[in-house]
Amino acid sequence: MMLLLALLFTIASSGRIVVRPAGMGGRAVLLAPNFQICPKAFSSRGFTVACEPDMTAAAVSFYVNGTYIRTEVVPPYSIAGDIFTYYRPWHAAPGQLTITCRARNFLGDEQFITVMGTFTCGYSLPIRVVTRSIRKSDCVGIPANTYKLPRPELWVPQSDGSLGYALKDNSLLPAEPSEETSLRYSFVVPTEARYGITLDSATMGDVDYNDVWIIFDGLTLRGYDNRTGLSSVYENIHGPVKAYQNFMKRSKAIFSVDHNPHTFSTTNKLKPGLVYNITIAARSTKFRLYGIMLFPCDGADCVAGTSHWQRSINMCSIWD
User: Fold this and answer.
1) Structural domain containing residue 270
2) What kind and span of H or E run contains 58?
3) pTM, whole model, 2 decimals?
4) Are residues 187 and 308 in the same domain?
5) Which ranges of the chain would DSSP assign to H, the alpha helix?
């Protein structure tokens, strides 16, 4: 009880609490002391409250009127949770509120941010979420060892079914795609749709050895702008695109755009009966490719962290 009283009356000298629209994107509004705001007027999509501490936080806990609500361990820190910057709506009743967030860093230092004010109206309308189904029969799996001949000499077959590029020779670092570094694959799709594209791959020990080139006639990259939180899309790319993963182990996730992960999808719908070609070219050494996976997706469903994207990369396999 004493801890909660301390939380209520401790006001930090830095950091801030803001209200944001639910969903993707939108302007943040600072919650100043003695605020009065009607969330319905602020956003027709619902709203959330987010904490922005002036420290590198390991965890941020939320309290409302002294009652613990939840703890977030990955930014952005929002009271109802989020998927990257896709904010879930918070259903708050009208009335006076004291909102506190308690941020803690990895050294155990703490920062408290408290704001008191009034929501002059409530908001109980949840955001509409469309859940798309995904079946294994929708997936396209292309094992790495089904490349079109000839196989580049530096891509060496491994005992686990992968192909490894220059696993022991760091001097063979390619700058641009070439005949000597490129693996070519052909595939067909089971249904007409736009498809997300990802790689089943493994990287080894260092971010200097974590990427390849993807070449496909008409790529779209989707993610978020780290500075604004707004949706970010690059469409209809026809040249080589860098693809990386920083997990330092085997993973089905692959991204583009440095320090701002964007996922891959086809710009246009792919059609059954047509043969499509995709090329994977070495960009760094010590990269292992197990295969390529494609799954139907469209718009925000193609973005990393959404439920459809996560279900798809979990369900799809290069061996199906």
Assistant:
1) 136-315
2) none
3) 0.62
4) yes
5) 2-9, 39-42, 307-315
